[in-house]
Amino acid sequence: xxxxxxxxxxxxxxxxxxxxxxxxxxxxxxxxxxxxxxxxxxxxxxxxxxxxxxxxxxxxxxxxxxxxxxxxxxxxxxxxxxxxxxxxxxxxxxxxxxxxxxxxxxxxxxxxxxxxxxxxxxxxxxxxxxxxxxxxxxxxxxxxxxxxxxxxxxxxxxxxxxx
Length: 163
Description:
- This protein starts with a helix and ends with a helix.
- The strands form two sheets. The chain has a four-stranded mixed β-sheet with strand order 4-3-5-6, with helices on both faces.
- The protein is of the alpha+beta class.
- It is built from six helices and six strands; from the N terminus they run H-E-E-H-E-H-E-H-E-E-H-H.
- It has one domain (3-162): Glutaredoxin.
- It has helices spanning 3-20, 56-69, 86-96, 111-121, 139-148, 150-162, and strands at residues 36-39, 44-47, 72-76, 103-106, 128-131, 134-137.
């Protein structure tokens, strides 16, 4: 089967999945499915990560969509309820102190995103925070910005974007 045939097959499978259920699963909810369908305002896109066919460019597009569609986004190790490293835990605690909902992506459950986010941001470590589409930095930068009040101002802008 060539690349176009496998892409067509994946599109057909995605259509069947969409028709069979009204819920859409985002590509980075922490649980991975054979085909993850992401609904955006302009298109449907598929992730072929579980089949080993997602290219670095596909991953970059998936990350870009997450950044654009989530006013406050944290790429982290583990989940908000169960961070898997101290730095991710610190980042979550800082964001939770603002009493906001934020989206998080567990990079431990998606190797493509784990390596892709480092290339996307040109930042070597995780966690990574994005507010209103802007890369902020890791937990060390978050701590500094939290202490000087700068992060609070950005979060307020993010809150306004959530409404």
